[in-house]
Specification:
Length: 610
């Protein structure tokens, strides 16, 4: 056996080595490959050999290992045994390093997963250390009788969950989710945006922007696009400029934009200087639809009910009980003695307008206990609790919000009309709280001043018609998209509205509608994937119409919801959180994407924490 058989090669130099093998006739079976090493090394002393040539190998062997032929004669059994032993040692070393690398990579991947869970539950970065400590303590009990308990505990202790590590993990995962988002933005057929602004605990105005993407198969996906911190003023031009800078920086394909939905704030919908107006004035933006959030409009309609006094008194009573610690404890004790289903009054502010219904319902259910509590305490400043008319106004419950889509608005309007007729007939079957209070006051239903409440309902209906007139053009188009084979559809009018909404050719739209309604094969198809069945060649306008309609946001609910998440993430205990980390945490908390943990672990140098 020659001296060159005592050397092995790396995979990086494999092609060159194979050519050298042919020249020096080195046997591959006597070589050991190690991808971690980048040069040829002696299997005896691990010294590096500059060039994998026969002369270099023999020179190294004679110079450094000259006595080797004497101690282990060539072709002897002793020589073969020694070579086998050296190879075995090398394999053990390689296995050790590979195993350690594998463990470190597994620990890194696990740290990504745990970090994701931490931030998804809106917890602090430093909670990773607490989670690790809990893991170790739990393992001590769970694996007490396991033979490999020490190995399991060692693996848990190898988790990298320090505050700084969790922070880096979250930053990497957020970047991964952002890349997935931008891939979908590039691939989508069109998209819509929703914008809203709110102030965080450090008085920084945060503008949340969500995107709804529609793909070629007419499926949609909603995601957080970005959060823009406003350090100074929040005028329409300021928000627009920040939005414009984001578009230029990220190269957002605004030519795919279909619509923008905002709330009704002047900074958003101002006629001259609102964000929408500024976007329309900018040549970079295409013609797009814009809508005032349905939920906000419904809430504004509710304000027309002229029931402000009811909300003000109920809110003051709740605050007077909960504002002082002693008063709150006494009220809780009173509720426990009365064996009530609830142990606390809810609070309400105008900012939390979506919770009015829950607040009033809880107040109504605890109203007898509230009156008794004030009577025992000798507090008589809230005389409205004994005012029968005030209680009737409170209990009719018209401040509740129940709609978030256009179809629900129409259903709600029909329901309101039906309720108005019921009240005129003194039928209170749909007003259980009102009927209950009348019964407690010993009044008959016929004694109710129904005109007082029917007037409120009629005013509310009138306000609904006024505020939702923007959707009058969209409604017949949406109806057609749901029921494309309606025989009573006015094709001319429908085609004109579709063309006007989505900037299409009216005659082409009309031809496609007529062709579509006459297609017997399409009539037999399931509606779930109906619009995806239409070919781009035959129905280009119909597909664009379906995709654009699917992309529309009906409300800014996602923005409103994200502000609730933001309030938890950036609480008074984490008020120094940077705007960048706020966006990272918010994206990881609400995104539907899942980070590629394996790729993230492969992209960094894996080390255990031990």
């Amino acid at each position: 056996m020659s001296a060159r058989s005592l050397c092995y090669r790396s995979t990086e130099t494999q092609d060159q080595a194979e050519r050298d093998d042919r020249s020096v006739k080195m046997r591959i079976c006597e070589c050991n490959i190690n991808s971690l090493w980048q040069s040829w090394r002696s299997i005896i002393c691990q010294a590096t050999i500059a060039m994998p040539k026969k002369g270099n190998v023999e020179r190294h062997f004679r110079t450094v290992h000259g006595k080797y032929d004497t101690t282990f004669p060539p072709k002897s059994e002793l020589r073969k045994k020694k070579v086998k032993e050296l190879k075995s040692q090398l394999s053990g070393q390689q296995s050790f390093f590979t195993q350690q690398t594998s463990k470190a990579k597994a620990a890194t991947k696990a740290s990504f997963r745990v970090s994701h869970i931490i931030v998804k539950n809106k917890k602090s970065f430093q909670d990773g250390e607490m989670v690790k400590e809990a893991f170790v303590e739990a393992a001590d009990s769970l694996f007490r009788d396991f033979k490999n308990k020490a190995e399991i505990t060692s693996s848990i202790k190898a988790l990298q969950l320090s505050r700084s590590t969790v922070t880096r993990r979250c930053e990497a995962m957020a970047e991964d989710l952002t890349q997935q988002l931008w891939k979908d933005i590039r691939d989508c057929q069109c998209f819509s945006l929703q914008l809203d602004e709110s102030t965080d605990v450090s008085d920084t105005a945060q503008v949340c922007i969500f995107i709804r993407m529609v793909f070629t198969d007419i499926t949609a996906k909603e995601e957080l696009l970005t959060v823009l911190p406003m350090k100074e003023q929040t005028r329409g031009e300021d928000i627009f400029q920040s939005f414009k800078n984001f578009i230029e920086k990220t190269q957002l394909p605004v030519y795919k934009l279909v619509s923008i939905t905002t709330d009704g704030a002047p900074a958003m919908v101002g006629r001259l200087n609102g964000v929408i107006a500024k976007c329309r004035q900018d040549d970079a933006f295409p013609d797009f639809l814009n809508y005032h959030c349905i939920i906000h409009q419904q809430a504004l309609c509710a304000k027309m009910l002229n029931m402000k006094e009811i909300m003000n008194v109920a809110t003051k009573i709740a605050c007077s009980i909960r504002a002082r610690s002693l008063q709150r404890r006494l009220f809780r004790a009173h509720l426990e003695k009365a064996d009530c289903d609830h142990s606390e009054l809810l609070l309400h502010t105008d900012v939390r307008w979506l919770s009015r219904g829950k607040f009033l319902q809880r107040f109504r259910e605890l109203c007898p206990e509230i009156k008794e509590f004030f009577r025992v305490a000798g507090q008589a400043e809230y005389m409205q609790l004994n005012d029968g008319q005030w209680l009737l106004d409170l209990l009719q419950g018209k401040d509740k919000t129940v709609i978030n889509m256009i179809s629900s608005v129409n259903a709600f309007k029909r329901k309101m009309q039906h309720l108005s007729l019921k009240l005129q007939r003194h039928d209170l079957i749909n007003f259980q709280n009102l009927a209950s209070e009348l019964e407690m006051q010993g009044m008959a239903c016929l004694q109710l001043d129904s005109a007082r409440y029917t007037e409120h309902i009629d005013n509310c209906l009138s306000e609904f018609d006024k505020r939702f007139q923007d959707f009058s053009l969209l409604e017949p188009v949406a109806t057609f998209m749901c029921y494309p084979f309606r025989e009573d559809a006015e094709v001319d009018s429908l085609a004109s509205k579709i063309a006007k909404l989505f900037h299409l050719n009216s005659s082409g739209v009309e031809d496609e509608i007529l062709t579509l309604q006459a297609d017997i094969e399409l009539k037999s198809r399931d509606h779930g994937q109906f619009w995806n069945l239409l070919t781009e060649v035959k129905y280009p306008n119909m597909r664009k119409c379906a995709a654009s309609l699917t992309a529309l946001f009906g409300s800014t609910y996602l923005c409103e919801s994200s502000f609730s998440h933001m309030k938890i993430i950036k609480s008074k205990y984490r008020s120094t959180m940077t705007d960048e980390h706020l966006e990272v945490c918010l994206r990881l908390a609400i995104s539907s994407y899942c980070p590629d943990y394996a790729s993230l672990a492969d992209s960094i140098q894996c080390k255990s924490s031990e």
